[in-house]
Amino acid sequence: MPTIPPIDYGDLQGGLVRMMERYKDEGTLTGDPDEDDAIRADANAALLGLLYDQRVRAEYAFTGPLRLKERLGHLDMATIAAMDFDDFQPIFAEKPAVHRFTNKMAENTQKVAKMIAEEYDGDAANMWNDGADIDTIEKRIKKLPGFGKGKASKIKYVLHYFGQRDFS
User: Fold this and answer.
1) Mean pLDDT confidence for 145-162
2) What angle do CA 134, 16, 43 make, to 5 degrees?
């Protein structure tokens, strides 16, 4: 189990807070250490998990990319972006669905994948692994489809607790 130094998340509320509280108490964010590790190992999964953190339980949102990866065999952003929506959406909607809003979130997934493929060489980690400060990272995140100010403000905690960047 990774040891992640805590950071203050007193300004947040909701499912992500519940996940961070569980991490303090049980050492797992999602409730499954293997799922936590799979998200930590894939920056694209961490980013898509935050995208999916909308109107579903946070743990379900953050494990959504793992369901997608299991079905596709990858989270290659260029490949996802290039898929015909009529082929992609049924994969996304297969039970258990990646997200409850199967049309809109499948569409946003492909739009995000296209931007990550084109602007960040297919790897979401390139949005934050260049040493950019959190304000710059948030600005980059806000440019992605499906990410507003609220989601962008959560990226610090997602990156920190899923081992992508240390903000302690």
Assistant:
1) 95
2) 55
Q: Which two tokens stand for residue 69?
A: 């990866």
Of 47, 14, 30, 15, whose CA–CA distance to 119 is shortest? Answer: 47
Which own/partner contact pairs does 78-83 have at CB distance under 8 Å and 24+ positions apart? 78/113, 78/117, 78/122, 80/109, 80/110, 80/113, 81/110, 81/113, 81/114, 81/117, 83/110
- How confident is residue 3, by pLDDT bands cut at 50, 70 and 90? confident
132 neighbors 140 (Cβ within 8 angstroms): yes
Q: What is the pTM of this model?
A: 0.96
- Assigned token pair, 116: 């990550």
